[in-house]
Write a structure and sequence with these properties.
With 244 residues, the protein is mainly α. The chain has helices at residues 15-26, 35-52, 58-75, 82-109, 139-152, 168-181, 199-217, and strands at residues 186-187, 227-230, 239-242. Among the domains are: 15-109, no CATH class; 168-242, Orthogonal Bundle (Arc Repressor Mutant, subunit A), CATH 1.10.10. The chain has 7 helices and 3 strands.
Length: 244
């Protein structure tokens, strides 16, 4: 019949815990334990406890027996026997595992405690996350990207409107019609049609009429001129009259 009785001696939870405490106090290296010194330390502790309290757990007494066995083997210079090595490796491995467990336990209890250092969110509303964007591109890059997107979304057809401009031939006709019915001087500006609203057409009419006037003012093959041109001063209006 197994017993659930658990006995703690001076706050040690077992012989391995006691051994690990002795290792710490004496600053032993677990990987290179001085087994004989550790045996003496353990047996001295158990002997002192037995003088005070005889109700010692059986596991402590079992470890005492193991320590006495190891001590006898070391005193007889038989520490290299396989059984001694096996028990020594067992104790070393157990102490190493216990050391790791105690270290992890301390780290675990050092963590923030729930409902003490941190608390759960009891609000019913979900956490709202707002995104913020940092634009690192230049203004030109942004405008270019916007233009590309805009063009992809637009369906359009590019059309060019054609404008019929005045030619030298048109200027000749205007001047010939004028001098055939008018014998006095007339200005170039007076020839401008009143229904022309386009600036480009205005310039085209003036340049074509001016060019035609220069041609008519020259002598033709029969050494005759058709038109006379005069101007009061530079950058003023030109005046025409039929050559007689």
């Amino acid at each position: 019949m197994e017993s659930n009785l658990h006995i703690s001696i001076d706050q040690f939870d077992g012989p391995l815990d006691l051994l690990l405490d002795l290792v710490y106090k004496n600053k032993y290296d677990i990987e290179k334990l001085p087994v004989l010194d550790l045996c003496n330390q353990y047996l001295n502790f158990i002997q002192n406890i037995k003088n005070i309290n005889l109700d010692i757990a059986s596991e402590y007494l079992l470890m005492s027996a193991i320590m006495i066995f190891l001590k006898s083997k070391f005193l007889l210079n038989k520490d290299k026997e396989e059984e001694v090595k096996k028990i020594t490796r067992f104790i070393t491995n157990r102490l190493t595992i216990l050391k790791i467990i105690k270290k992890n336990s301390e780290d675990l209890f050092d963590l923030p405690q729930f409902n003490q250092e941190f608390f759960s969110n009891k609000h019913k509303y979900k956490l709202k996350i707002e995104k913020s964007y940092i634009i690192k591109d230049k203004l030109y890059d942004l405008l270019k990207a916007y233009t590309n997107v805009y063009r992809r979304n637009q369906n359009y057809t590019l059309k060019f409107s054609s404008i019929k401009l005045f030619s030298i031939k048109d200027g000749n006709k205007v001047l010939n019609d004028k001098i055939s019915n008018f014998d006095d001087w007339f200005s170039l500006e007076s020839l401008m049609p009143g229904n022309i609203k386009n600036k480009l057409l205005n310039k085209s009419f003036i340049s074509s009429t001016f060019g035609a006037g220069l041609q008519l003012a020259k002598k033709d093959d029969s050494n005759q001129k058709i038109l006379v041109i005069k101007q009061a001063k530079p950058f003023t209006d030109l005046y025409y009259k039929k050559y007689e």
